[in-house]
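Project outcomes to date are best conveyed with an example. Our students and postdoctoral researchers have been running inverse folding experiments weekly, and each run begins with a structure described purely in tokens. The record below, which covers 257 residues, was selected by the lab manager from last quarter's runs and is presented without edits.
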């Protein structure tokens, strides 16, 4: 078994993730969580690692604010897309592109970072625990670790309310894998236990898409997407909605050494 490489799906992935309402919600929640936390670091120029960051949607936003970013991805096509977008930017962006599995990153080669982002990656990894723990070796003391992962319990609930009972009984095993369906979704409590073992102090916890994925097919004629995003933000940090997020975002701080 190998970790997922999106080379064959790069354009589809990019359009599906950030070219849709789903992507707008994701970007809104992540930005709401991250922007104040990064500002609280008190440094005008942070070193940020975007591990498995694809074409670098957030990398480009943070680089535009003057931060120094290393964008690493296993997909050559994703990085080619990132290179095109960086070149087209009207604002000079300090982004180093690294074509590599995130497991191969070392502090000896790249130094340590004030912030590490790892979004929508863990659920594609055969051994997420070991890989993420390895990433933390590149995080400075009091640094920020931002992890967004696919929530297995939300996958179950969505399948139940959709009537896909056989799928649930098979523990989500399908005969034909869908290209963008994560292969290793995670339980929230398992990830919380990992964070405790790694001595990370939780700063923020949010659900991502706590409403959107459960909307009825027939919506009111005056349905407003912007209002949906506002509601997503309003309920993303409240239970039981947080735990029903299709993705969950944990932002935590490393210990002082």
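After processing, the design step wrote out the following sequence:
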């Amino acid at each position: 078994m190998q970790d997922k490489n999106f080379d064959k799906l790069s354009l589809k992935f990019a359009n599906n993730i950030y070219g849709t309402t789903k992507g707008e919600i994701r970007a809104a929640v992540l930005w709401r969580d991250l922007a104040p936390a990064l500002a609280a670091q008190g440094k005008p120029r942070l070193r940020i690692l975007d591990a498995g960051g694809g074409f670098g949607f957030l990398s480009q936003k943070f680089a535009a604010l003057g931060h120094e970013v290393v964008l690493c991805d296993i997909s050559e096509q994703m990085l080619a897309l990132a290179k095109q977008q960086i070149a087209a930017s009207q604002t000079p962006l300090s982004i180093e592109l690294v074509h590599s599995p995130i497991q191969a990153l070392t502090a000896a080669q790249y130094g340590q970072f004030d912030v590490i982002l790892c979004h929508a990656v863990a659920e594609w990894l055969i051994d997420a625990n070991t890989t993420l723990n390895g990433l933390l070796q590149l995080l400075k003391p009091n640094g920020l670790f931002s992890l967004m992962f696919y929530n297995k319990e939300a996958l179950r609930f969505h399948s139940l309310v959709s009537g896909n009972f056989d799928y649930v009984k098979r523990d989500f095993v399908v005969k034909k894998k869908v290209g963008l369906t994560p292969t290793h979704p995670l339980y929230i409590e398992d990830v919380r236990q990992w964070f405790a073992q790694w001595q990370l102090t939780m700063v923020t916890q949010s659900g991502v898409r706590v409403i959107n994925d459960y909307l009825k097919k027939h919506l009111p004629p005056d349905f407003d997407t912007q209002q949906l995003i506002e509601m997503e933000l309003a309920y993303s940090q409240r239970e039981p909605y947080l735990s029903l997020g299709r993705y969950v975002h944990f932002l935590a701080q490393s210990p002082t050494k």
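DSSP finds ten helices and seven strands in the chain. The beta strands are 47-51, 68-73, 95-99, 113-119, 139-150, 201-208, 247-253. The training component of this project remains on track.
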